[in-house]
Amino acid sequence: MAHQAIVDLPHLFDANIFYPDRRTLAYSEHLLVPAAMGAPLLWAGASPVLVYNLLLLAGFTLTGWTTWYVVSRWTGDSAAGILSGVLVAFNAHTLTRLPHLQAQHAEFLPLALLAFDALLTTPRLRHALLLACWFALQSLVSFYLLVFTATALVVGFLVRPEGWWGRRARRVLPLVAIAGALTAAAVVPALLPYKHLGVVRSLREVARYSAHGRDYLATPARVHYRLWSARFFGGTALFPGVVGLLLATVAIGRGVAFRDPRARMALAFGIIAVALSFGPAMPGYATLYTWVPLLEGIRGAARFGYLAIVASALLAGFGLAALRARWRDARWMPAATVAVLALANLDALAAPVGYVRPEPVSVLYSRLPSSAVVVEFPFYPPDRIFHSAQYLLESTWCWCPMLNGYSGLVPASYVDHYRELQGFPDARAIAALRAAGVTHVFVHYDNMRRWAGAEAVDALSHTVDLRLVETDGRVGLYRADEGRD
């Protein structure tokens, strides 16, 4: 986005991957807001790896901070806000989705809930504008977070009729409509590329990526994983944490979750989120899928479980605030509060996190002309397309169109290219490269040997249709347009 915004803004979604397809950014989450946050750093010359890591830390920080701010205002207790902030930012789900930058940037969801509550309690145009602002920003982080935020707001609206029913309807409902219209005006342009591509997840596919009961017992937290959680660990981790669950139970048991409209809202959308996370296994999901178009774009229904974690964290804040109010004069309360906050952090502690050093980008990528069309080998099979992630990092040196790509969706063009190129560098593959308009070929020798065998690499020196331009020993750059008419 940082590159395309200054080069060709009207074609922002025309990413350089999966050439010659168009709007290829829409094959994945667009991450427009995080991209905008990181753009100044990239323009200043920072590496994509550095920017990613800074944005990852910013996501944790901003999500925790906004949750603290909202819960502190709702409960009048800063310690309760800190607890909720910790639980929303650091939990089983976020700490198992570190590669998904958008999953860490939920900072606008609490602010949208705050503005929504303000609109219901004190109907003013200012609150409608704030609601539209925060809802739109969260929606422009991630399509999933758009759906989660919409779910929280719709459910919250339904369980708080005292805020908009009867005489209040005349004042509140027009403001809600204004907020909705402004949000749609900001968000719809970012959704249109997905509609043009017809990105629809079938119910069968949704079922494959839906939650199971064991997922709510799975966590990477060291203390839990070693003691009991490892046996439940599968593809998704949704355990809300012992501290969060206990204090959310306090909020429910003491009636706060029913008396306080904000807590009631959290309880309601938390229950709905758990139900939705099971996808088609939930009675009525297929009907919702038919009638709510946004659900057609949700493949990983299990991720609704994160919204349930958010609800649990908000309720835990209310629970801690209730206990601190009950024993506010007790001498042991400050120490107990510190202990609760420490245990909440221990609840999610997954350190040390296993990182790997990024592979250095070869200087050969700086040799490409701006008109180049690129392919990289090995050209991985569709079910191993994630190995192409390194190619995307390398392409940031030149932003040349490339046949390779990596996203949440494998387009038909990639499957076709793989079918034609799997015998590279044979005559069929060379003909396919020419037909696709490829001008330059990168070969990663070691990976090519592992995937295609040493004979494929040896054959490169005997292929008259490829001319070696330069090699650094690890990567070879070849011209692929020799012999054209």
Give an account of the 3D structure:
Helix 3 packs antiparallel against helix 4 and helix 11 crosses helix 15 (304-326). The radius of gyration is 25 Å and the shape is elongated. The chain has helices at 2-7, 32-43, 48-75, 78-89, 108-121, 125-139, 143-158, 169-197, 203-208, 222-227, 242-253, 256-259, 261-277, 285-291, 304-326, 333-348, 389-395, 412-421, 427-436, 445-452, 454-460; strands at residues 374-377, 440-444, 467-471, 475-479. The chain has two domains: 31-348, no CATH class; 363-479, no CATH class. The chain is mostly helical. Strands 1-2-4-3 form a four-stranded mixed β-sheet. The chain starts with a helix and ends in a 6-residue tail after the last strand. Strand 3 and strand 4 form a beta hairpin. The model has no long low-confidence stretch (mean pLDDT 93). The chain is 55% helix and 4% strand.
Strand order of the largest sheet: 1-2-4-3
**How does the overall form come out from the CA principal axes?**
elongated
Question: Strand share of the residues?
Answer: under 5%
Order of helices and strands: HHHHHHHHHHHHHHHHEHHHEHHEE
What share of the residues lie within helices?
40-55%
- Cα-to-Cα separation, first versus last residue: 36 Å
Which consecutive residue ranges, at least 5 long each, have pLDDT under 50? none
Structural class: mainly alpha
The total of beta strands comes to 4
